[in-house]
Write a structure and sequence with these properties.
mainly alpha; elongated
Length: about 220
């Protein structure tokens, strides 16, 4: 039993290593320009090692998508299900979402920006069902935010609009970081915290009734003080 568990852990670690290397290449070069040979070279391994765990480049791409959504959900769902107020939960969820984006930048950037167009240009309908499954993961994740936003709207904390409509610009504010952010080698944790604080505050102002806090008082969303 212990041997099987060790083997499973080794397989998982090997796949994660391939997923990370491929994500970095997809981020830098794009899906079409990245080959299995390039992924193997980045790993310092043979092409056979990559094919031992994945049948194709498309399969690796989908594994990146699933990994991204699973990590986001594992980070955010416990906060969404906690007993805190809707405003505090949404604030913490936004910060956790950003922390995961910035911490797993290559994987999350590929997932956020998507590469479906490259797949459809190359192979068309073959991946429709897989893309549908991944979109379901995305929808389920978005629903975590929609439920909290709906609760806040019903309690008069957030603006009175359909929650699904509000989640789109809310995510847009947070996810845009994957477009413009470029990590620096000597970047300290404080500078990352500044980015998170600015984006979370901006997103919360846009959704909170009355802008800053609805009553002219200080918002209870004060994670960075």
């Amino acid at each position: 039993m212990a041997r099987l568990q060790a083997s499973s852990e080794q397989t998982s670690a090997a796949k994660d290593e391939i997923i990370q290397a491929a994500a970095e290449l997809f981020m830098d070069l794009g899906y079409t320009a990245t080959s299995i040979d390039a992924i193997a070279e980045k790993l310092g391994a043979t092409k056979g090692r990559v094919y031992h765990y994945f049948d194709s480049k498309a399969e690796i791409f989908f594994a990146i998508q699933r990994t991204a959504m699973e990590r986001l959900a594992a980070t955010v769902e416990p906060i969404a299900r906690s007993g805190e107020t809707a405003e505090m939960r949404l604030c913490k969820m936004a910060d956790a979402h950003l922390s995961r984006l910035l911490g797993d930048l290559a994987i999350q950037k590929v997932a956020v920006q998507g590469l479906e167009r490259y797949l459809f240009e190359a192979s068309g309908y073959r991946y429709v069902h897989t893309l549908r499954d991944i979109n379901k993961l995305r929808d389920d994740y978005e629903e975590l935010f929609a439920e909290v936003i709906d609760e806040g709207s019903r309690k008069g904390v957030f603006v009175d609009l359909p929650p699904r409509l509000l989640t789109k610009p809310f995510f847009g504010t947070l996810n845009w970081v994957t477009v413009w952010y470029r990590p620096r080698k000597l970047q300290d944790p404080q500078s990352i915290s500044v980015i998170r604080e600015a984006l979370v505050s901006f997103a919360m102002r846009g959704i909170r009734r009355g802008g800053a806090d609805g009553n002219g008082d200080k918002s209870e969303c004060a994670l960075f003080e």
